Amino acid sequence: MEPTVSTVDIPVNPQKERTGLNRVWHALGYSLAGLRAGWGETAFRQECIAAFVLVPLSFWLGQTWVEVALLAGSVLLLMVVELLNTAIETAIDRVGPEWHDLSKRAKDMGSAAVLLSLLVCAGIWLAALGQRFL
Question: In sequence order, which residues have a C-beta less than 8 Å from that of residue 45 and are 6 or more positions away?
């Protein structure tokens, strides 16, 4: 009788078998591919351009490391949420183009997350500008 191979022994993803620096190197490649894919989205591209200005500006505007971290971090948080929203939309679109209540709900919640992070970012920046100049 031949031994059978269990489906438990077959890796679903070869990334799971990598270890150490090899795993980190490949993960970096996947992350860069995600950023390149995000660049294809207009909203993310606009946020990247804004970050190119706002992150260095946070070092000038912030008076302590905490203020700098809040200013720069709020911009980066917005970009993270935008990427996650795009991932949700892409996954939903992969499932199918037909309209569905749950698909709409998932996309709407992703959009709401972007809105909330944008409001947090704007609030932090307005408060910092107000403290500095008013």
Answer: 39
What are the DSSP E strand ranges found in 2-134?
Answer: none
From the candidates 41, 67, 82, 98, which is the catalytic residue?
A: 82
Q: Backbone dihedral region of 5: left (phi > 0), alpha (psi from -120 to 50 degrees) or beta?
A: beta
Handedness of CA 123, 128, 133, 134 (dihedral sign): positive
Which one-letter DSSP state was computed for residue 4? P
pTM (two decimals): 0.84
Among this protein's residues, is 82 annotated catalytic? yes
12-55 pLDDT, tens digit each = 777 778 888 988 999 999 999 999 999 999 999 999 999 999 99
Q: How confident is the model at residue 5 (pLDDT cuts 50, 70, 90)?
A: low
Determine the longest span between alpha carbons in the chain, in angstroms: 84
